[in-house]
Amino acid sequence: MIRVLLVDDQAVVRAGFRMFLDLADGIEVVGEAADGPEAVRLARRLAPDVVCMDVRMPGGNGLVATREITSGADGTHVPAVLVVTTFDLDEYVFGALEAGASGFVLKDTDPDDLVDAVRRLAAGHGMVDHTVTRRVITEFARRQPVGPVDAPESPLTPRELDIVRLLARGLSNAEIAEELVVETTTVKSHLGRAMAKIGVRDRLQVVVWAYRSGIADPGRNA
């Protein structure tokens, strides 16, 4: 059973998400919060697998809450955070990605897509709403400083680096496989090992790492 915590300052939004998620097999909404501080408290007490986080809340910043929840500083269970927002290129979205969010969907997303996003994050697969994936990655890349040429040697193999760079350009596993002329399963295997080496839990945070470290080139993402 996938345990979900809903965070939004609007009760009607939480009610709608609860209805969609409670109807889905294998998903249970275990709590609701109306602001960031309450979300942090409930995340620590309830240990959800996924937190659906609104980042623009007058009662408490969801970006700060995301950073606290994903830091694991208190040694407790670290859930995946799914940012749910009204705007596809909201300033808060990029801050949330930097804070450790694992996924991003729009509030008007199809209920089935919301359920799919929760399942993907629970399984360790970060995701961004398919309608804005490349736009978000491109804009995020533009905001990141390019790492120095003489940056410390990467822990990744040359093939893993190739895959990470293509992932940072917004390519899917199938597109990466086609680009490198390998099987999709090979891409998944290399990506899994890369994630373990750099200490991230999902694809989206691999992209964040790639730009922070200078592995990915923002100039190739247009």
Automatic annotation (TrEMBL):
Keyword Transcription regulation recorded: yes
Coiled-coil region list: none
Domain annotation HTH luxR-type: ranges: 149-214
One Pfam family hit: GerE
SMART domains assigned to the protein according to its UniProt record, in alphabetical order: HTH_LUXR (SM00421), REC (SM00448)
Location of 4-aspartylphosphate modifications: D54
Keywords from the UniProt entry: DNA-binding, Phosphoprotein, Transcription, Transcription regulation
Highest taxon above the source species: Bacteria
CDD domains named among the record's database cross-references: LuxR_C_like (cd06170), REC_NarL-like (cd17535)
Residue span, Response regulatory domain: 3-122
Stated name of the protein: Response regulator transcription factor
Organism field: Pseudonocardia nematodicida
Lineage of source species: Bacteria, Bacillati, Actinomycetota, Actinomycetes, Pseudonocardiales
